[in-house]
Amino acid sequence: MKATIYPTLRCVDITHGVETQTIYFNQLDEWSSVTINGQDIDLHFDYELRSDFGTKLQWLSHIIQAYSSTDPEYTKQLITKIEVEV
Hints:
Blueprint: E1 2-6, E2 11-16, E3 19-24, E4 31-36, E5 39-45, H1 56-63, E6 64-68, E7 81-84
């Protein structure tokens, strides 16, 4: 699963398999459930300023996280690639 974050557009594209879904930040609560490519995904959204983090990777990993809705402990992060487009 890949997340492409567009800070200026305030949205994220989540790609899972062959399906991509655009989700605007104002549509997300801290936790939201979506179905992408037939899989129920729980998204955790917590937008913070880049300057609050030591590295870009730490920042990106914090902003958007995705877990299978069948993983109640949220132990396996499904997003394996994060990009930022400006």
